[in-house]
């Protein structure tokens, strides 16, 4: 439930030709059970950019917006370049803000195709040694692949989805993204405070409305829009689960005799903190029921496999053979498929998606931790 109270809007500072703006909103929300399970302990940032055009190679980022929840609501921070040549200052301030707020993952709308690669290309082109590689909950990509909305709305534009959920009329901006580009060109010539406000409002409303959309759907675990016969656990597993505090995306691929896991490494938070973000390592199985896998630095991905035991049309694992600790056993003990150290993944031919997801995330985190430990020991020799 969204409650917006009186807002505080302030111009915080001006350093050369870049400006920072903040606005706070009071907010009350109640996430669903599945949403809380996978995202409840992580700090999100709703991220959106404005650019001088669509080419990440030749155009520039001139405005970024980041919405981050706080104890009593949300805070939106924007960095605006008064001139396109100040792009590097906007990028630097953006990365520093993500780091200072301990962001674990991003929420975007088509960010996987636009905002994220555009930002990374511009970081590289301006020779800034940072990364925007975070787990990305791209709401557009999720709705396109797992919801009924593609057949329910004229287009999957953010504004169309807002109208579908009845919040489209709450917007306070009066321009489109394309109009924002033209208006910014005029703004760089005359510095009009009115044009500045219009551009900022459009960008700010994008992240605020996206946060509202995400919260609305997470409150009911996307139940009202999921395609049959999907549940949110199943859909999220196919989309990619956050693991290791957002440093990994994990996708389970259960087969008859093996649980295969594929995923991505996200090193932004580490790289930006002068730590090694991505790494390579291989783990070979010690016994026939052990986890094996490989992390690859060059391609920023990883794979893992867990052999499954079977009886009839049911499959399961012996967690003790996977070297699960007593604390790990406690982690699994609340699942319906957990019985005396065994975890049931398929019951009478029906997949147990929560159990599959939980095992996949735990195994990926364990594999990453074990390989890091081996790497550290090798460096000490």
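-> sequence recovered:
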């Amino acid at each position: 439930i969204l409650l917006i109270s009186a807002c505080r809007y302030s111009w915080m500072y001006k350093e050369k030709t870049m400006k920072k703006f903040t606005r706070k909103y009071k907010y009350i929300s109640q996430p669903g059970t599945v949403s809380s399970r996978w995202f409840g302990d992580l700090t999100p940032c709703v991220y959106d950019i404005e650019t001088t055009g669509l080419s990440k190679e030749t155009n520039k980022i001139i405005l970024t917006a980041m919405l981050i929840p706080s104890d009593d609501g949300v805070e939106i921070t924007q960095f605006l370049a008064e001139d396109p040549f100040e792009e590097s200052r906007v990028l630097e301030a953006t990365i520093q803000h993500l780091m200072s707020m301990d962001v674990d993952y991003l929420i975007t709308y088509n960010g996987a195709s636009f905002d994220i690669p555009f930002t990374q290309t511009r970081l590289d082109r301006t020779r800034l040694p940072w990364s925007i590689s975070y787990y990305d909950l791209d709401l557009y990509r999720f709705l396109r692949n797992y919801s009924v909305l593609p057949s329910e709305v004229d287009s999957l534009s953010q504004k169309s989805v807002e109208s579908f959920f009845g919040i489209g009329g709450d917007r306070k901006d009066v321009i489109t993204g394309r109009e924002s580009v033209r208006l910014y060109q005029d703004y760089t010539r005359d510095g009009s405070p009115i044009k500045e406000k219009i551009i900022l409002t459009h960008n700010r409303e994008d992240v605020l409305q996206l946060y509202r959309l995400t919260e609305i759907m997470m409150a009911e675990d996307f139940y009202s829009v999921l395609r049959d016969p999907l549940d949110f656990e199943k859909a999220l597993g196919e989309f990619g689960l956050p693991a290791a505090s957002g440093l990994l995306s994990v996708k389970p691929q259960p087969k008859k005799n093996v649980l295969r896991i594929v995923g991505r490494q996200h090193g932004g938070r580490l790289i930006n903190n002068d730590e090694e973000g991505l790494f390579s390592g291989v783990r070979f199985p010690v016994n026939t029921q052990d986890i094996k896998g490989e992390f690859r630095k060059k391609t920023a991905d990883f794979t893992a496999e867990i052999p499954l035991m079977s009886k009839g049309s049911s499959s399961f694992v012996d967690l003790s053979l996977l070297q699960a600790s007593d604390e790990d056993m406690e982690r699994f003990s609340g699942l319906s498929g957990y019985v005396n150290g065994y975890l049931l993944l398929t019951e009478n031919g029906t997949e147990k998606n929560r159990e599959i997801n939980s095992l996949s995330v735990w195994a990926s985190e364990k594999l990453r931790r074990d390989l890091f430990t081996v790497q550290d020991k090798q460096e000490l020799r």
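The first helix runs from residue 33 to 39.
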